[in-house]
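Reopening: NAD kinase still failing for me.
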Amino acid sequence: MPKAGIIYNDVKPIAARIAIELKDKLTAAGWDVYMTSGIGGMLGYCTPESPVYHTPIEGLTPPGFDSEMQFAVVLGGDGTVLAASRQTAPCGIPLLAVNTGHMGFLTEAYVNQLPQAIEKVIAGEYEIEERTMLTVKMFRGDEVLWEALCLNEMVLHREPLTSMCHFEIRVGRHAPVDIAADGVIVSTPTGSTAYSLSAGGPVITPGVPVLQLVPICPHSLASRALVFPNSESVSIHPVNTQRLVMVVDGNAGCYVLPEDRVYLERSQYSVRFIRLQPPEFFRILREKLGWGLPHIAKPTSVELP
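Support: Ran it again with your exact input. Result attached.
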């Protein structure tokens, strides 16, 4: 019996309703279906009473989800997709992301397109697009106190955000650099259209094998975004007397003390997105972010003699 999964945002009634309807439909068609909430991929925020909320990377995979699962349908917005990526990446399960939210930058189809999309997936009429992920770890000495998979970005900053921070950052085996800023962002190409874009970083197409480091409001004209190969690791030492906050993909984080170290590297796992048509990144940029839209009238074409 073929196996499929459904990951849904249980906060949204429409996602919960469609999840049940989809499970009934697939079960009637002879599929073994496992359902879970996207909340299982949310690592939780730290609190002063619980500064470290540590769940091993492979510990987020829901029961029944494994490498034998042919695909999983994600019902929600981009936040649910980010959570689902952490739940499924260690097993390599292909994800069909269906938008029930607002932006839906990472999704492939809308709710009204779900029946046709499922038919294509069952028939095998799709492509797989792999997206790079990061492994993020927080060390205290030689001990890993916190770790997570990251699809978009890692952000390290002070509370409140407007306070100046100092960082010593080493990329690969290169000489360390010093950055004074409100914070720093380390982003994948997928995350280049998220927080790092708002902080002034460049847009990077998904297939380019790079990462980027973006200072947040740097206190220097010389501190600008840096793009480097994703084969290079990143070590960040906060040079501050107060604790910092690290946030991954906007929904998970922990406190980082002055003696701690944040380490990032390209993960052995990647997200496998189901694409029902060949991926067209520029079209998504145009539709979702307005990139390349004409803002002035084009000149009338004139034939050259």
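The domain at 3-131+270-289 is CATH 3.40.50.10330 (Rossmann fold). If you still see a failure, please send the error message rather than a screenshot.
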